[in-house]
Amino acid sequence: MSVPQSLAIPAADPAVSVHTQPISPPRPGRRGKQGKIYTRETSGRFNRLRWGMVIVTQLIFYGLCWLPWDGRQAVLFDLGDYKFHIFGLVLWPQDALYMAIVLVVAALALFWVTALAGRVFCGFACPQTVYTEMFMWIENRIEGDRVARMRRDSAPSTPAGLALKAAKHGAWWMLALWTGVTFVGYFTPVREVVTGAFQGQLGPWEWFWLFFYATFTYLQAGLLREKVCQHMCPYSRFQTAMFDDRTKVVAYDVARGEPRGALRSAANSGDCVDCSVCVQVCPTGIDIRQGLQYPCINCGLCIDGCDQIMDKLGRPRGLIRFAAESAGQPLAVTSGAATTARSTTKSMPTTTAKGWHPRLWVYGALMVFFTGLGIYVLLHRVPLQVDVLRDRGALFREVEDGRVENAYRLHILNMDQIPHRFRVTVEGLPSARVVAGEVLDVAGGSTASLPVTVQAEAAAGRAGANPVQFTISSEEAADGRDQNLQVRENSVFMLP
After folding, report:
1. Would the pLDDT of 11 be above 70?
2. CA 488 – CA 374 distance, rounded (Å)
């Protein structure tokens, strides 16, 4: 199998002479039987940032569904009643526009971050990365470090080794099941889910989704891990379409590191001592010294590992670091099965690219626009919807005093969480007035139907259909205290 095609970045200055140096493959032992990756734990600023994101995201995910709000769950997606409760806001299917705006803003934010610093979302906030990190932490606590796991897996099975693996998988399943409970708890009140799960009284759909999501988490984070990023996630395939010469990516300083030598055994050796720590800590199993490759998730763990080695050797940090081409920072280039390093004779500068490139401005402007649009639409949202239907049984009726009567049915949806008394008025014809069905009480978050009768003089308009407009407003709106609860709907009034 050929080496994956990487993003080729040329030298910063074509006028400067260029040399090439073959890149050696990773040392044996990085992968075990069947290509299993044994990741080494490391520490450093990027690892701390990753764990910070793990803590923040999981506090939100596991904790948000337990927050009470006005007698109910703070965040609850009630599919049975077609309501999304988000703190004090209740969204209905008619509010799908808000979800569309949220998705657009989220996509633009992802594009903006990717154009600025590559796949940092993948490396720090992607659920696949977050849960894999949690599962690997459990694995390291139970089975031991990388060396211990490799030694145990390469040796014949023993009762002690099997017990450790059973304990690990048991802990994984416990975390996965609690994740499934939490996931279902956003669609069914979580307290009911927990009680029903322990008592065996959940409905069939709750059981299905609990075990489905738990199994999905167990497989993705426990067994598949980096294979999801490499083979299943489409984002890794088209990420380079959002890169340009100012995008920061994890880069190996070829000019400073090559040629490699053990503790500078040769006079012309570079700073890289070929310890392979950068390979051992990589969660996707790549060698960043071979150039930028699509499995790289920009997690920065290879930077932490290399910095630790440089500190021990008393050499400057930054042999591997985040770099951008436009700042004069050449990268190693991978092409097919042959790999070369292309760089200037000087080490890549530590300065960063100045200024934003147009793509960032465009993404940022679109984010601001759609965020502002969402806020504007939300502030002007009317929690009231009315449908006016004419009586299909008769176009009109003539009453005793010579007036003409039309019958309608109003379907009123009160999307507010408190009850309202609504008053119906009509305008458009000089003598038109509501004679029946003028007032209706509607409970909060419910729908009511109201038959309405409208009368007008026979000579008030032309024969046939005459446009009229119904105004439905709460009594608070009629008093000027709540102008939001008022809508107008058009219809027609038939005259002989």
Report:
1. no
2. 23
